[in-house]
Amino acid sequence: MVNAIINELTNGVSDVDVTSIDIVKVLRVGKSTPDHPRALKVVTSSASKVKIVLKNKASVKNSGRFSTMRIDEDFTEMQRKQLKGLRSDLSRRKENGENITIKYVCGSSTIVKSCKPKN
Questions:
Q1: 44, 73 in Cβ contact below 8 A?
Q2: Phi and psi of 48, rounded to 5°?
Q3: Which domain of life is it from (predicted)?
Q4: b/e string for 30-51 if b means 16 or more Cβ within 10 A?
């Protein structure tokens, strides 16, 4: 199943050889609940292939087969706290009429002006 997802994510990316993405292990994380499946943590041997998969993760939402699936990075606790603070700051500033978004710039997440016009 994990290989099928990776195939979907790398479909059309010419410089990716899917067979070269070595999956070291797949783990279930979190508590099991009847209404919500547990997340999977996929560990690979190549960070460069992971970047390609993460870059194309939005295509999963558009595929019929995996449309209910979500792919996220494994953030540290400090990164999660920083993003939480940025998101609260972002929502406050958007309420004041600013056209901004969060982007990953020079190794860290930051709030920048949005390129998309405001609706």
A1: no
A2: -65, -35
A3: Eukaryota
A4: eeeeeeeeeeeebebeeeebbe
pLDDT digits (tens, 9 = 90+) for 12-37: 554 555 556 677 888 888 888 888 88
Extract the tokens encoding 95. 């309420």
The residue type found at 63 is S
User: What is the reported pLDDT for 50?
Assistant: 78
The whole-angstrom separation of Cα 96 and Cα 33 is: 39
Q: Which residue has the tokens 């016009």?
A: 117
Beta bridge partners of 30: none
Are residues 5 and 60 in contact, defined by beta-carbon separation less than 8 angstroms?
A: yes
Task: Return d(Cα 98, Cα 79) in angstroms, integer.
Answer: 24
> Mean pLDDT per 10-residue run, the chain (119 residues)?
66 55 81 84 80 75 72 86 93 93 82 78
For residue 70, the Cα-to-chain-centroid distance in whole angstroms is 7
